[in-house]
Each structure stands twice: as structure tokens, then as C-alpha cells.
Design brief:
The protein has four helices and no strands. It is mainly α. The mean pLDDT is 85.
Length: 123
């Protein structure tokens, strides 16, 4: 529930900021009489601004600076992935060796215990 209230307050704040920053929208909303018309006006403005925002985001993502940063980030991620893969392989190899040692020790211990138990039963 805490996340829901946080989401709603963020949406309310964003809506208020959008309404306060858009003079044209405020003027059109002041002239509207019906709530249905208010929704249509708000929807029209959100659609127009959404298209504009989408175009701006596309141009930003296609810019050289962002592409350079993405390539750098991709290289960094690749290095981290390779390092993690090597560490995991080392961990698995070490674990396998250790498991084999423990199995051998358990086998020897079980053999000794079985002998002792057999001797105890004979007497």
C-alpha cells in the first residue's frame, strides 16, 4: 500500500506541474463547462505533448554523446559479465574438488565405523 500511495502522490505532483507549466492548457480548461470536455481537452494536450516528448527522446537517443555512452556502458557490462563468469567457474571448480574430498573422507569414515560396528556385534 505504501508504494501505491507513493505512486499516486507522484502522479498528482506530475499532473499539477504539467498543468501549472502549460499556459495554453490552463486557458482552455478555464473555458470548459462540462467535465467530459475537460477530459477531452486534457487528452488532446497530453497526446500532442507526448508526441513531442517522444520525438525529443528519439533525437536524444540517436545523438552521438548518448551512443558513445551506450557503447562504453556495453563494454563495461561485457567486462563485468566475463569476470563474473570466470569467478563462477572458479567457484564451481573449487566446490567440485572440495565435494570430492569430502566424499572420500566420508567413505573412509563410514568404512571404519562399519568395521567397528561389525567387531562390536561379533563379540
Amino acid at each position: 500500500m505504501r508504494k501505491l500511495s507513493l505512486l499516486l502522490s507522484a502522479l498528482g505532483g506530475a499532473s499539477a506541474a504539467y498543468l501549472l507549466s502549460n499556459k495554453k492548457l490552463r486557458a482552455e480548461l478555464a473555458k470548459v463547462q462540462k467535465p467530459e470536455d475537460m477530459g477531452k481537452v486534457l487528452g488532446k494536450h497530453l497526446q500532442q505533448d507526448g508526441k513531442k516528448l517522444g520525438k525529443d527522446i528519439c533525437t536524444l537517443l540517436e545523438s552521438n554523446a548518448v551512443q558513445t555512452k551506450l557503447k562504453h556502458a556495453q563494454g563495461t557490462l561485457q567486462k563485468h559479465f566475463e569476470r563474473a563468469q570466470e569467478e563462477l567457474q572458479t567457484f564451481i571448480t573449487t566446490g567440485t574438488k572440495e565435494a570430492k574430498k569430502q566424499v572420500k573422507k566420508a567413505k573412509i569414515t563410514a568404512k571404519k565405523r562399519a568395521k567397528n560396528a561389525f567387531k562390536t556385534k561379533k563379540v
